[in-house]
Amino acid sequence: MTSAHPVDLLALAARHADPVRWPVPLRFDRAQRWYARLAAGPDHEVWALSWLPGQGTDLHDHGGSPGAFLVIAGTLTEETVSGDRLRPHRLAAGAGRRFGARHVHVVTNRGDRPAVSVHVYRPALRRMTRYRLRDGQLLIADVAEAGVAW
Predict the structure, then answer these.
(1) Whole-prediction pTM value?
(2) pLDDT higher than 80, residue 3
């Protein structure tokens, strides 16, 4: 995959949607979301995440990397900033989302069943910034670096 031959990141996520073919076994962790890198190339990486009911992320970005994610089991709720509040979007199994380099969101399993998703980033994640939304303003809470935080 090179910039001369752009690949649809959501389609790439779909190619990794079968847990039986993953290089690591799917797990669920009651203490925190489980995640594992499934594949990496010179310009992208693919991650699997599992989500028990109630598990989710903080409000965050992907350090300037565009990406996509595909829900392969269960239902996830993605919240994006809209004005001064977060607007929810429910994504059931089979639904996916492409996003740009400046995308900020929260993803949570609000359902009563486990969920699984596949995420693709191009380029690979180097950092993620976590935010707080206060009075309609995104305030930086912290910056996590690859190799340190995950």
Answers:
(1) 0.92
(2) no
